[in-house]
Design brief:
Elements: E1 4-15, E2 18-29, E3 33-37, H1 44-52, E4 59-64, H2 70-77, E5 80-83, H3 95-106, H4 112-120, H5 136-148, E6 154-158, H6 166-183, E7 186-190, H7 194-198, E8 203-208, E9 211-217, H8 218-224, E10 228-233, H9 236-245, E11 252-254, E12 259-262, H10 269-278, E13 283-289, H11 293-301
Parallel strand pairs: 3-7, 3-8, 5-6, 6-7
Antiparallel strand pairs: 1-2, 1-4, 8-9, 10-12, 10-13, 11-12
Length: about 300
């Protein structure tokens, strides 16, 4: 088996005359956290439904764990967990009963796993409360809990932090990163909350109007969007010498307009300003600059 848990080649999906996915290509590397980025209506959920087997492509090829035969894909999907378009829950059942029902449907014998997942998702205290009494955030937690049943090797989450408060978002982030690091779980996350993806993703795919615009590693993206301290002084030559000799900066560029871009003192801008002032160099401007993921995506699609 190769190192990709998902490979998509030339995938198309039409609904009537509307082409939602247009010769779409994608590869998700085993062990990665893949941030799937696109506007509403770009085709993200449609693709996820095709991966889950809830719909069928008009043309193209889809492989899971190096298998593309439709007769084998169903078995491959049993190695996966999904949260798509919000959780499908039995509202008149309790959280525990929902999980027990899914265990029966999937043939998961270990009922002790339910207690573990309820604890993991901070639902244990409410495990015997009927779901119709749950808040949106609690329902979202239960949906993720269902996706985690059976310890999936590949987890696909469509907008997983919808309805969660800031504390809940942090908890879910820590859970997902922990699963990825401890168990090597591959995770694909579709989300419009791009700053949160920046805290998790190791790879990105940018979709626009049904086409894959770019796939890129987080490392390569960081280089493209690299942050720096923008420094403007009344003496760029002397400032550069102090940066190198006293602050031991070895990654900075001096530009003809007199500005200096410092790449290795991002968290030390106050120290930079204080040191220059001590040497009687006037600091005209010192700010943190650099492109964020949201701006990078907007520039990519030409907005």
């Amino acid at each position: 088996m190769n190192s990709f848990v998902l490979e998509v080649h030339g995938l198309c999906k039409k609904y009537g005359h509307q082409l939602v996915l247009n010769h779409f290509d994608m590869r998700v590397q085993q062990g990665s956290i893949y941030g799937f980025v696109g506007e509403n209506g770009a085709g993200k959920t449609t693709l996820i439904r095709l991966i889950a087997g809830l719909d069928f492509p008009t043309c193209g090829k889809l492989s899971l764990f190096d298998e593309s035969d439709p007769r084998i894909l169903r078995r491959q999907r049993s190695r996966m967990g999904f949260l798509i378009e919000g959780p499908a829950l039995y509202l008149d059942m309790t959280a525990r009963q929902n999980l027990e029902m899914i265990c029966i449907q999937r043939g998961i014998p270990d009922k002790q796993e339910i207690d573990h997942i309820l604890e993991l998702m901070s639902l244990k205290e409410n495990s015997n409360k009927k779901v119709h009494n749950f808040s949106l955030g609690m329902r979202q937690r239960l949906g993720i809990a269902i996706a985690l049943l059976g310890e999936p090797e590949f987890l696909i989450l469509d907008e997983p932090i919808n309805g969660l408060d800031p504390t809940g978002i942090l908890e879910i982030r820590d859970i997902l990163i922990g699963l990825n690091k401890r168990k090597g779980t591959t995770i694909l996350i579709s989300s419009h909350i791009l700053p949160e993806l920046e805290n998790m993703a190791t790879h990105y795919g940018f979709i626009h109007k049904g086409r894959m615009l770019q796939e890129i590693t987080a490392e390569s993206l960081a280089k493209k969007c690299r942050q720096f301290v923008l420094l403007k002084t009344d003496n760029k030559e002397k400032a550069a010498a102090i940066l190198e000799d006293e602050l031991h900066s070895h990654e900075f560029d001096v530009y003809p307009d007199g500005s200096i871009h410092i790449f290795d003192l991002i968290n030390r801008s106050e120290e930079v300003a204080a040191c220059l002032t001590t040497h009687q160099i006037a600091v005209k401007e010192i700010t943190i600059c650099g492109e964020r993921l949201e701006n990078y995506f907007k520039n990519l699609i030409g907005v």
